[in-house]
């Protein structure tokens, strides 16, 4: 199939499933797309198992087979999604919660990674799927960071107190850089053997995180100065697109963190250029353009998450192990949130119910699936991919559909 045909297929399905959800299901848009796509995928798998000669899933599997999910998300959609998400985040609110966000995105991610890694290692052995400890830590590293795309998409519609929303948004935007570095280190040790060197880890952090911050600041400033010198909405939209694409491409080439670069550039443009460099007409153009692009890409991404079961099922789908690890992942998240809040409560006040809301609202999403799909082919990859997919589906569907009820119950009015 041509690239245009693949795009037409995905956009067409997104529109169809979005209509069905809006008309009948009434779930949040992205969650509804996952539910309907998953139901369609499972129906096709059932039909195929009952009537193998029917080949009812041929078209979808042909399309999915030509899409590298990891490449499409990590080196394509993610740059636009993160920039669009950061564009609408209040930098002042982030600054007020800086300590909590910093601790949760760094120490909290490490705590969660270690806890989930140990729990996975123990449970896998007891369940008859022995997994080397380093590969259990790889799973802990890829599943611990909250997914900014899923979190920001959901919390646009969930009535959460502004302090909690700022904390959760800030953590989800910044902890991916930390998670990817930890994931890279553990995968390197798992594949090559040996002990991780602290100096090498420090270099990775410096290049990935600090490099991403510097690139994002530079790109954001260049975009701000260019937009300040003109008043042409269409050209200013083009400038923001250039900021995203050139900056992310440079980050990939320089081995810096593209996600962090996008977050920093988005915050800079959204809080500096939007206020001081563009007219009200241009601001309206920019906001509507990025909201529309964000909605389209989110729709395609969550559609792909729901359909991906057709590909994963062909590796031997072991969902029972994934179900066993859901409580482990949630407990790891709770522990990281609880300890992070305890460490920063001296300087920052937290709304009652902060721990359960930040725990349950810390969704996992497409980034975790993309990282699992990027693992090298070996005997442990199918198990890690399967359990990652189950935890992500639970997070998006169950946590996403019930977090509003939780907020109403535990947050003081």
Overview of the molecule:
With 413 residues, the chain is mostly helical. The protein has a single domain (71-298, 326-410), classed as Na+/H+ antiporter like fold. It is 80% helix and 0% strand. It is built from 18 helices and no strands. It has helices spanning 3-25, 29-50, 58-65, 69-87, 91-96, 98-126, 133-143, 148-154, 162-192, 198-228, 233-253, 258-276, 280-307, 309-312, 319-344, 354-360, 366-373, 381-410. It is globular, with a radius of gyration of 21 Å. It starts with a helix and ends with a helix.
Distance between the termini: 54 Å
Do you know the CATH topology? Na+/H+ antiporter like fold
* CATH architecture group name: Up-down Bundle
What proportion of the residues form beta strands (DSSP E)?
Answer: under 5%
The gyration radius over C-alpha positions equals: 21 Å
Structural class: mainly alpha
Oligomer: single chain
**How many individual helices?**
18
Q: What is the ordering of alpha helices and beta strands?
A: HHHHHHHHHHHHHHHHHH
Largest sheet: none
Q: How would you state the average pLDDT, rounded?
A: 88
Q: Give the overall silhouette.
A: globular
How many separate domains? 1
Q: Kindly state the percentage of residues in helix.
A: over 70%
Name some characteristics of this structure:
413 residues, mainly alpha, Na+/H+ antiporter like fold, 18 helices
Set out the fold topology:
Blueprint: H1 3-25, H2 29-50, H3 58-65, H4 69-87, H5 91-96, H6 98-126, H7 133-143, H8 148-154, H9 162-192, H10 198-228, H11 233-253, H12 258-276, H13 280-307, H14 309-312, H15 319-344, H16 354-360, H17 366-373, H18 381-410
């Amino acid at each position: 199939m041509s690239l245009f045909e693949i795009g037409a297929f995905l956009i067409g399905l997104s529109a169809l499933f979005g209509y069905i959800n809006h008309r009948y299901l009434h779930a949040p848009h992205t969650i509804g797309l996952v539910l309907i796509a998953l139901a369609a995928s499972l129906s096709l798998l059932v039909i195929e198992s009952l009537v193998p000669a029917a080949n009812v899933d041929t078209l979808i599997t042909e399309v999915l087979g030509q899409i590298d999910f990891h490449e499409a998300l990590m080196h394509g959609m993610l740059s636009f999604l993160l920039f669009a998400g950061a564009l609408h985040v209040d930098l002042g609110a982030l600054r007020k919660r800086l300590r909590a966000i910093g601790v949760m995105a760094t120490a909290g991610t490490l705590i969660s990674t270690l806890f989930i890694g140990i729990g996975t290692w123990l449970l896998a052995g007891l369940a008859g799927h022995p997994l080397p400890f380093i590969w259990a830590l790889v799973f802990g590293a890829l599943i611990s960071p909250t997914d900014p795309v899923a979190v920001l998409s959901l919390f646009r519609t969930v009535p959460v107190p502004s302090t909690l929303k700022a904390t959760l948004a800030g953590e989800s935007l910044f902890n991916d850089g930390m998670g990817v570095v930890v994931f890279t280190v553990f995968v390197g040790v798992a594949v090559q053997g040996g002990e991780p060197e602290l100096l090498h880890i420090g270099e990775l952090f410096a290049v990935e995180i600090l490099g991403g911050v510097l690139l994002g600041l530079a790109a954001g400033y260049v975009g701000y100065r260019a937009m300040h010198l003109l008043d042409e909405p269409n050209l200013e939209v083009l400038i923001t697109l250039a900021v995203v694409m050139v900056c992310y491409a440079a980050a990939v080439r320089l081995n810096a963190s593209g996600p962090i670069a996008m977050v920093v550039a988005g915050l800079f443009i959204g809080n500096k250029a939007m206020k001081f460099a563009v007219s009200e007409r241009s601001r309206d153009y920019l906001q509507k353009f990025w909201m529309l692009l964000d909605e389209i890409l989110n729709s395609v991404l969550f559609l792909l998450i729901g359909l991906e079961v057709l590909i994963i099922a062909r590796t031997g789908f072991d969902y029972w192990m994934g179900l066993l690890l859901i409580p482990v992942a949630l407990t790891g998240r709770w522990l990281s949130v609880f300890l992070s809040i305890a460490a920063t409560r001296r300087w920052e006040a937290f709304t009652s119910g902060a721990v359960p809301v930040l725990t349950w609202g810390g969704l996992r999403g497409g980034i975790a699936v993309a990282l699992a799909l990027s693992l090298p082919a070996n005997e442990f990859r199918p198990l890690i991919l399967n359990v990652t997919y189950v935890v992500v589906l639970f997070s998006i569907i169950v946590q996403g559909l019930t977090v509003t009820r939780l907020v109403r119950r535990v947050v003081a009015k």
